[in-house]
Amino acid sequence: MPVEYQMANQSEERQSWSSRLAYIMTVAGATVGFGATWRFPYLVGENGGGAYVFLFCIAMIVIGIPMILVENVIGRRMRVNAVDAFGGSANGKKISPAWKILGYMGLLGAFGILAYYMVLGGWVLNYIGSLITGNLDLSTPVTVETTYQFFQQSIFNSPVIIITYTAIFVLVNYFILVKGIVDGIERSVKYLMPILFVFLLVMVIRNVTLPGAVEGIKFYLMPDFSKITPKLFVFVLGQVFFALSLGFGVLITLSSYLDKNENLVKTATITGVMNTIIAVLAGFMIFPSLFSFGVAPNSGPTLVFQSLPIVFSNMWGGTIFAIIFFALLVVAALTTSLTIYEVIITALQEKANISRKKAIFITLATIFILGNIPSALSDNVLKDVQIMGKSIFDAFDYISGNILFILTALGSAIFVGFVLKDEAKEELGAGKTLTNIWFNYVRFVIPVIILVIFFNSL
């Protein structure tokens, strides 16, 4: 479809995605970041392998796709920022301004995740730089002690280097964002997503063909049903929120640029399926190699930074494949960070009625100073600063992922089910039976599920 423009309450014209494919690829990029390539694999390793993968696929159907539709409906309804999307009128009545609190909570959550997320990007860039310069030498087999010492020295004890790499990552985001939704984010994602898929397939093919890889595949795909518990399922449901960027305005913002004629059910289903496929593929590029070289799969968040370098050092062409792997992480992180930034940028641009370029600068600079730098210093200079008993880095993650996102998602489901009501059904635009099933599920079941997730995460 042609690019269309619609005037919003702002000083510049609001763009629309140039095509359905462009929107789907951008949403896929938004939901395929560190959640799929870093967090999902280590959680699989810690929680029973195939049992976790099995529950993740079910959770995508139970909570993922229905909640994508909730945010799509809210976002496209008024085609404005993630705060004002909770305003206007519905069913002939003006919506209380109090509902906009949900939008502001989403902005806070977006700030929180970007505060540490960009630093993770700095970690990955540091590893790529170290591999290229030979500071991290994987040409011969390395030990657990070697990778541990490198991680401590290059990540925790090198704040200036990490802040520098984080700043580089932020600048890359800036130069893409200033070009706008279509010429910036959309065009970049069109190139970045194919690159990500190619890198992913290269790593999967390399790892599943390693000697002894079958044991890793069995661990990954064959669920041990004795490890499946209600508590684990609730935990997996919570991971779906992180994996799909639910609750902090990303899908609301992206769908606000979506044409009214687009099929929301189709795009939501494709988004959920693509996220699941890429997350599962990410496991294929990790677990076969771990088992091939006898490395434990349950090393937690440091899996890709401390355990995988051991694997690469034992692999033919290990340094090259390590660079490809970490480049893949950077690409995945970039496609996500761009869209999270956009949540705050769009809100600031429209609420403060300022130019896009100024909104971008204020957003990125503020998060860098108040979020990225403190997160990068949380394990060294600011290691004695604790928030809720956690380091600054971990506190940003916990407060955003376990409190703000979940409560915003809960409020969004209630908003659709009890405020928008018939207007939500009309916006969905699906068949009557499917629409009613989704609406009643969102109205009565989803809030209960989210409350269980919330109390389990505290």
Q: Radius of gyration, rounded?
A: 21 Å
Low-pLDDT sequence parts:
1-11
Q: How many separate helices?
A: 18
Q: How many distinct folded domains?
A: 1
In terms of DSSP E residues, the strand content is: under 5%
The topology string of helices and strands comes to EEHHHEEHHHHHHHHHHHHHHH
CATH level 1 class label: Mainly Alpha
- Give average pLDDT, whole number: 91
State the strand order across the main sheet. Answer: 1-2
CATH topology: Hydantoin permease
SS class: mainly alpha
Largest beta-sheet characterization: 2 strands, antiparallel
Query: Which architecture would the CATH scheme give at its second level?
Result: Orthogonal Bundle
Q: In angstroms, what separates the terminal alpha carbons? A: 45 Å
| Global outline | globular
Give the total of beta strands.
4
